[in-house]
Design brief:
By secondary structure, the protein is an alpha/beta fold. The chain folds into 2 domains: about 220 residues, P-loop containing nucleotide triphosphate hydrolases (Rossmann fold, 3-Layer(aba) Sandwich), CATH 3.40.50; about 60 residues, Alpha-Beta Plaits (2-Layer Sandwich), CATH 3.30.70.920. About 35% of the residues lie in helices and about 30% in strands.
Amino acid sequence: MLEVNNVTKYYGHNLAVDNLSFKVNDGEIFGLLGVNGAGKTTTFRMIIGLLEMNEGTIKLDGKNINYDNTNQIGFLTEERSLLTKLTVKEQAIMYGILKGMRKKDILKKLDYWLERFHIKEYKERKIKELSKGNQQKIQFITAIINDPKLLILDEPFTGLDPINVEEFVKVMKEFKEKGSIIIFSSHRMEHVEMFCDNLLILVKGKSVLQGSIKEIKKEYRKKNIHIIGNVNIEDLQKTKGVLEVEKNALEIIVKIASEEYIDNVFDVVKNGCDITKFMVEDPSLNEIFLNKVGEVYEN
């Protein structure tokens, strides 16, 4: 288990992380979300021991993180951290040795992952000769080559096409099944919604929302109603409980304050023509994220 307890970090007089606490269990994928400058990268760097916190504790399996257990950690940074003049093989050996691995084990793991990601022909190529997508694959490989107990992934899908995103997701789920702790950050809410168990939204260094995605959606009262058919938009906009009405090429989306107003919308819709769809859905994680972040900046 990873335990972050009451962690605070200042840069001079600037508060970057404000009394932050969360736990991530073994075999869990945890989403740490926030806009740029929210404190995510600072939090990641404190977790892996690159930055000292001003207050609080961070423990992995009950122990402070230091040189005794950093070999159990893998970290894929948002910024490319590859040495572009090295070959793929040289890069992997360097990272593996830094994680306490033997060279023969590094090469065995490297061959497996290069084959897995369909880039085995690049083993002796220099990093600078690879495409951005293939560089991202190498960066991912260096993060997982030591079979980490704790894996931190900051925007891991940058530069990847949908096929390779799916391959990365498969690997993440495999590590989850093996009991690894995974902290995942992305600006793409659909990725977070796809496979994270729990999440935390960070704004100005402080947690503004935390919990399981399922419970967060359940407690968030607003709902969306998707309608296909000939309905009077103005009548919908005037209906009690309706917050907003959107119309796109496929359907009408009615946003309501809570499920108690569903019948009000249905009373308007039933008078329309050719109604082929009336479906109530929870709001997307992206909507919830924008709402929670907006609340903080408005106050």
